[in-house]
Each structure stands twice: as C-alpha cells, then as structure tokens.
Amino acid sequence: MFLLDDILLAPVKGVAWLAQQIQEEANRQLFDPAVIKARLAELQEQCDSGLISEAELRKAESALLERLQAARQREQGRKTSTS
C-alpha cells in the first residue's frame, strides 16, 4: 500500500520539490548583494549616459537599497539561527 502511494504521489512530490528549488533560487538572486550592487552600478551608468533620468535613478536606487538591507537582515537572521 505504501509503495503504491509513493508511486502515485511521486509526480506531485516532484513538482513540489521543483517549485521549492525555483523559489530558493529566486530568493538567492533577489537578495544576492553582488547582484544588487551590480544593478546599482548599471543604473548609475544609464543615468550618466542619459538613458534614464535622475528621478528614475533615485526611485530604482531606493528599491535596490531596500533589497540590500533586507538581504543583510536575512543574512543576520541566518547567522543567529545557526549559532
């Protein structure tokens, strides 16, 4: 009976595992300080070359700096939870 359950539920478990992996990777990329800093530099270059306005730069910068702060808080939370 348990073997049959495992066979029938394998596709569901596989999809759930895959969704979890995708979520974890998305979070890693979203909160990766190196990615955020690279995007900040890219925005500054776009502003310097006139592709975006100073106001657009400040708005995007603000959002990225919030993400960077959240990334640092997440990292601190991980350090304290593993201690």
Structure in words:
This protein has 83 residues and is an all-alpha fold. The protein has one domain (2-82). It has helices spanning 2-30, 33-48, 54-82. Helix 2 (33-48) packs antiparallel against helix 3 (54-82). It is elongated, with a radius of gyration of 20 Å. It starts with a helix and ends with a helix.
Low-confidence stretches: none
- Would you list the SSEs in sequence order as H and E? HHH
Proportion of helical residues: over 70%
Mean pLDDT across the residues is 90
Let me know the largest β-sheet.
Answer: none
Please give the alpha-carbon distance between the first and last residues.
Answer: 42 Å
Helical segment count: 3
Sum up the structure in keywords.
83 residues, mainly alpha, elongated
Nutshell version of this structure?
The protein is built from three helices and no strands. It is mainly α and 83 residues long.
Topology:
Layout: H1 2-30, H2 33-48, H3 54-82
